[in-house]
Amino acid sequence: MNTKKIIYSIAFLVLVFGLIYLETTKKTPVNWFPSYVAKHKIPYGTFVLREELFNLFPSEEITTIKIPPYIYLEDTTRAGTYFFVDETLNFGNAEFLRLMKFVERGNTVFISTHGMNIDTLNFETKQLVSKNLDEKVTFKFKNNVFKGKEYSYDRPFVNQVFTKIDTLNSTILGITGYVNDNEERTEEGVNFVKFTYGKGDFYFHTFPEVFTNYSILKPSNHQHAANVLSYLRDDLPILWDSYYKTGKSKITSPIYYLLNNKYLKWAYYMVLIGVFFFIIFEGKRKQRKITVLTPLKNQTVAFTRTIANMYFEKQEHKNIAEHKINYLLAFIRTKLNIPTTTIDTTFYKYVSSRSGNSLESVEKLFQYCDEIHLKNDVTTNELMQLNSMIENFKKTIQYGK
Questions:
Q1: CB of 43 within 8 A of CB of 32?
Q2: Are 35 and 247 in contact (CB under 8 A)?
Q3: For 181-190, which contacts have Cβ atoms below 8 Å and span 24 or more sequence positions?
Q4: DSSP letter (8 states) at residue 122
Q5: How many separate helices (H) and strands (E) can be counted in the chain?
Q6: Are 141 and 186 in contact (CB under 8 A)?
Q7: For the packed helices 380-399 and 317-335, what is the interaxial angle rounded to 10 degrees?
Q8: 3-class SS at 110?
Q9: Residue 59 to residue 23: CA distance in whole angstroms
Q10: For residue range 300-347, what is the model confidence (pLDDT) as tens digits?
């Protein structure tokens, strides 16, 4: 490896390890994803609420339900307070009908979510919008037991209120609104309702953020969540829904587990970098050096010239002439497909018709060849004349007259 490659490699390694150091030492950003999962300790998880339920309902069993309500409530003997909290909840008609029968038997269903429109029970919601971004959102309970105390929330969220309520069977428990700098209320609406159905009750609540870790751990807001839960019966077991959740309650991919842990993630990256360097420096095929063999040159022409020069220098014109005549006969056999065993008038006619030469020139050529055969010695001029006649004969075949 030359010096330039070594410098580039060192610079690359310094860059990689510098990046790794910066990534491993930087503060992990806060995950504000609204998962509402009981195992999640992120701000919008419900780990704290799930643990505090044992203190809020010490005498009751708390069961986690991991299957849809439609399946769980097939057993009509089940009883308790079915507790739903999530960003959004979409029950099918058949499933919600089963929840209604569950409540009708004397049980409770608590639903805290944004934007619920329940046509079956004549409930509709809409978003309550502030006219001024600087206004503060507040929450207040209608029950005088809570002494009219108001609670606020300092994070942006979708503030939903009920626009349509079955007033005959419903009780308004809480309201929400916006207050300006002059402590004047600009917008207000109902966000917490109790609906009596059969022997039981539905509780509809449109501010699920109150049950998140972020809200409960704030000293000024934990009482807000406790006040909402105080309406639930303490003589029924709590059925905690973990099926309808925005976030995943478990890791479903090994890669997700690797990349979600800071140290495992960078160990994984180091393995990939190591493989990359192995491919560059060690992944090449190793073998002995292959010697480049120069192919042999075609020496046929040079050999022919050497032999010709040898005959010419020794004045062996007779041999050269005989070779020329033999090559001529071989040319006729291969190119014109005419046998040369018998040289007669028929042979002349065939050669003339197939070569394009006149019959007279063909007869003259072979008669001169016969003269050469009969001579013991051939002069230079005779040899040159023979060569000229043969070349003219071939040119007519190749290029025409």
A1: yes
A2: yes
A3: 181/134, 186/130, 186/131, 186/132, 186/135, 187/128, 187/129, 187/130, 187/131, 188/128, 189/128, 189/161, 189/162, 189/163, 190/161, 190/162, 190/165
A4: T
A5: 13, 11
A6: no
A7: 10
A8: strand
A9: 48
A10: 667 667 766 666 666 678 888 888 888 888 888 888 888 888 888 888
pLDDT at 387 over 90: no
- Tell me what the pLDDT averaged over the chain comes to: 84
Provide the 8-state DSSP code for 286: P
377 CB-side CA count, 13 A: 4
E strand segments, 95-248: 108-112, 124-127, 136-141, 150-152, 160-164, 170-179, 185-197, 200-205, 238-241
Cα angle 203-204-206, degrees, rounded to a multiple of 5: 145
Under a CB-based contact definition with an 8 Å cutoff, are residues 61 and 53 in contact? no
- Strands 200-205 and 185-197, how do they pair? antiparallel
Contact 193, 162 (CB under 8 A): yes
89: closest CA among 110, 116, 120, 69?
116
- Burial-class residue 95 by CB neighbours within 10 Å (0-12, 13-18, 19+): middle
- Predicted model pTM: 0.60
Taking CA atoms, 179 is separated from 137, 183, 221, 338, 345, in Å, by: 6, 5, 18, 119, 130
Residue in this structure with the two tokens 């069961």, named with its chain if needed: 63
Q: Does the domain at residues 47-250 carry the CATH identifier 1.25.40?
A: no
In this structure, what are the phi and psi dihedrals at residue 331, rounded to the nearest 5 degrees? -65, -40
